[in-house]
Amino acid sequence: MKALTANRLTDGEVVFWKDGRWVERFADAQLWAVDDPAAVEAEALGKGQGTTVVDVYLIDLVESEGLWAPLSYRERIRALGPTNHPHHGKQAEGGAVVEALQHASGAARSTGRVNLIKRK
User: Fold this and answer.
1) Within a domain: 118
2) Which of 23, 27, 29, 120 has its CA 20 to 30 A from that of 79?
3) What Pfam families does the annotation carry (predicted)?
4) Does residue 117 sit within a domain?
């Protein structure tokens, strides 16, 4: 599975794509199968929003506690918020998705991020 992520330009907030718009919570993100061409189309649409977001790319997901979570540690941190204290950021909200993010494992880089780095 994959999800689309970026950073909002107005405040730097990590955002995720859902049905043609950006949402702040990973739990609300739209998910695609690895080979779904709609994911590539959404990525292209997101990249066309240069005055709204920056660094648009697809992230790889892994199943964790029956839910989906980013495969890479970096993307899990981005989805949870700052790591300085568990009562700060999105992780402070708690819930099943936050628990799944906190317990997910895998350290591979998301292929979308690797491609983004290669293009710079």
Assistant:
1) no
2) 120
3) DUF2849
4) no
- pLDDT 10s digit of each residue in the chain, 120 long? 999 999 999 999 999 999 999 999 999 999 999 999 999 999 999 999 999 999 999 999 998 888 898 998 889 888 887 666 666 667 667 677 667 766 676 666 666 666 666 655
Is residue 59 one of the residues assigned to a domain? yes
Residue 24 is classified by DSSP as: S
Burial of 47 (0-12, 13-18, 19+ CB in 10 A): middle
Structural domain boundaries enclosing 103: 2-112
Rounded to two decimals, the pTM is 0.77
CA dihedral 81, 84, 85, 88 (to 10 degrees): -40
Query: What amino acid is encoded at 14 in this protein?
Result: V
